[in-house]
Design a protein that fits this description.
single chain; mainly alpha; 10 helices; binds zinc ion; transmembrane
Length: 263
């Protein structure tokens, strides 16, 4: 899928988690619902850090371009090192390591640790990166024609405001994880979820997604998971724009209402 569909599905997924959490007796304070949905929308773009023309690889200038090259090389190396006889030869790392559940859990877990241990600046940093991505993903064309600097300023401002709101007592810094010292541990959850939702979105497209790596399926460790071929669509096709995106919006709306206790 393309950026906007990935981001929308990420936001909708977090709103759905909000509804499920409310039903399970852990309702999210509204700042957790809103921040989580935006973080998840941003994180749903992150696995494409292995592709140089992806939104995330352009979003932070030379910094993200360099990181993209490093991630692409590492992914390709891991692919070559772990491929089995059934896996094909590939020339680059796109849709390999960063498109697996292992990557999702490692990145989300790392961010949780960082948020918990790193204090206010770590939380601000995580929020900033994901707000910039959420703006790029959700506003798409509007963000593309404006300058990068403008998007960064908007990301920094929203990160600052949201961090201030979350920090107020009762606003959710210790949602779900309530022991002392576990503040902001939940920040990794929308990041894991965003990456997984991205992988599911890619699995629906023609090429599939090796999300289960390193669990071997048949003679392939990088088995491209997906529905039967007839149910797959091309990235950026009308199915994505005219069917899936409206569905994500409706589901997200229902999830949000459920999370806030209206339904
Ligand atoms: Zn992808």
């Amino acid at each position: 899928m393309m950026g906007p569909a990935h981001s929308l599905s990420g936001a909708a997924a977090w709103l759905g988690v909000g509804a499920a959490a409310a039903a399970a007796g852990h309702p999210m304070p509204w700042p957790v619902l809103v921040c989580g949905a935006l973080i998840c929308a941003g994180a749903a773009l992150a696995p494409d850090l292995d592709h140089k023309s992806a939104t995330i690889s352009r979003a932070f200038g030379p910094l993200s371009r360099t990181l993209c090259e490093v991630v692409d090389s590492i992914s390709h190396a891991v692919y070559k090192a772990t491929k089995m006889r059934g896996d094909s030869n590939r020339s680059g790392g796109h849709r390999t390591l960063t498109h697996t559940w292992v990557w999702a859990v490692l990145v989300g877990g790392g961010m949780s640790l960082l948020a918990m241990q790193g204090g206010r600046w770590a939380v601000l940093g995580i929020l900033f990166v994901h707000m910039v991505l959420a703006i790029e993903g959700l506003l798409w064309r509007a963000a593309r024609v404006s300058s990068d600097v403008l998007v960064w300023l908007l990301g920094a401002a929203s990160a600052w405001i949201l961090a201030g709101i979350l920090d107020q007592p009762g606003n959710g810094a210790s949602w779900l994880f309530t022991e002392p010292g576990q503040q902001y541990l939940w920040l990794g959850l929308p990041i894991v979820l965003g990456a997984l939702v991205h992988d599911i979105g890619d699995a629906l497209t023609v090429s599939g997604c090796p999300v289960l790596w390193p669990i071997p399926i048949g003679r392939k460790r990088w088995y491209p998971v997906g529905p039967p071929k007839a149910m797959r669509f091309k990235a950026g096709s009308w199915v994505e724009l005219k069917v899936l995106m409206p569905i994500f919006m409706v589901l997200g709306g229902i999830g949000g209402l459920g999370a806030l206790g209206y339904i």
